Amino acid sequence: MNAVEVCDLSFGYTAEPVLKKISLSVAEGTSCCITGENGSGKSTLLKLILGELKPREGKILVFGEPASHMSNPRCIAYVPQANVMDKVAFPTTCREMVSLGLYGDFGFIKIPRKRQFERAEQALADMGLAAYARVPFNELSGGLQQRVMITRALINDPKLLVLDEPTAGVDSGSKICFLELLDRVRAERGISTLLVSHELELVSAHMKLDATWRIVDGRITHA
Question: Which of 22, 40, 89, 104 has the fewest CB atoms within 10 Å of its CB?
Answer without folding.
Answer: 89
